[in-house]
Design a protein that fits this description.
Length: 308
């Protein structure tokens, strides 16, 4: 067997804010992908993946829900026949490795599935998001369902609120000097501990106020700027966001990167922000002049995501 490909995703804006119902913008990232495959002799990563699928199967089978039903007989037969998820998506990097796996399982085994070919009304999108939230909770304890949704649809998704999501048209890439890029921290991050830190911070009234009055406003402005191709305003708002994250989300930024985060804000060569929950994995960067940013960050591995 060989299933269709599902891609990684990047949450450009909205990390943590979407947990509290503010806006977010996620885009597919086609450099990394995964697909269900099977082999008779499993070893290494494939064997580990197969064992993980057994656990996912048990979890789904024992989680009562009216949202979705699966063909568990075929699912189990395929696992027993050596099915695994063959993926180039790095795990613990904030680019949706578990999301792509969840999307592939839904695509292969869900009964009466909502397909990407039908008219995707808001209700259908929300139902898919709820299904994916339930499925991905197996990996993270709590999931918004957005990573698998993005991977399943392979479309940019604009999150207006928990009950209002829509496919978004993003401006086509231009051959400009500016860029969105990924910086590899070369550390694996875990989502659950980071989300727990955030939830504890939410008990603090000052933190909640900052989130509602500054973080959400800058995030919404960045999304609006990005969707309308307003680069100069975008970079100004990303800088404000970068400062705010450094001041309020320090535990989510690996300590080795506090200094270069600050350096970007001071020199304006680049601005850094969290990619997903942080704690390791990728850090997202924005630069008006990508070549200049590459010189400033020459010690680090960078990957280009989007040109403007």
């Amino acid at each position: 067997m060989k299933g269709p490909l599902f891609y990684a995703k990047i949450l450009l804006f909205g990390e943590y804010g979407i947990i509290k119902d503010s806006k977010g913008l996620a885009i597919p990232y086609n450099c990394y992908k995964g697909a269900l495959k099977s082999a008779s002799n499993l070893s290494g990563e494939a064997k580990k993946s197969n064992e993980n699928l057994i656990k996912l199967y048990d979890y789904l089978k024992n989680t009562p829900t009216d949202l979705v039903s699966f063909n568990f007989n075929v699912f189990k037969e395929d696992i027993d026949s050596g099915m695994y998820f063959d993926s180039s998506i790095p795990q613990g990097y904030g680019v949706g490795s578990s999301g792509a796996l969840v999307a592939s399982i839904y695509d292969q085994y869900a009964e009466d599935k909502i397909t990407i070919l039908e008219n995707l009304t808001r209700d259908k999108l929300l139902k898919l998001k709820d299904i994916f939230s339930l499925m991905e909770s197996f990996f993270h304890g709590k999931s918004s369902g957005l990573d698998p949704l993005n991977s399943y649809l392979s479309l940019p998704i604009l999150i207006n609120s928990k009950t209002n999501i829509e496919p978004a048209g993003i401006p086509s890439q231009k051959e400009g000097k500016g860029a969105v890029f990924l910086l590899d921290s070369e550390q694996v991050g875990e989502t659950e501990p980071m989300v727990n830190i955030f939830m504890n911070k939410m008990k603090n009234e000052g933190f909640r106020k900052m989130l509602n009055e500054e973080f959400a406003i800058y995030t919404d402005a960045c999304i609006d700027n990005f969707l309308h191709g307003n680069v100069s305003s975008l970079l100004g708002n990303v800088k404000k966001l970068s400062k705010l994250v450094l001041a309020n989300f320090k535990p989510m930024i690996p300590s080795a990167f506090h200094k270069i985060w600050e350096q970007g804000i001071q020199t304006n060569d680049y601005y850094l922000k969290l990619c997903g929950s942080g704690g390791g994995g990728y850090i997202l960067g924005f630069a008006q002049d990508y070549d200049k940013a590459k010189v400033s960050l020459k010690k680090y591995k960078l990957e280009l995501v989007y040109r403007f």
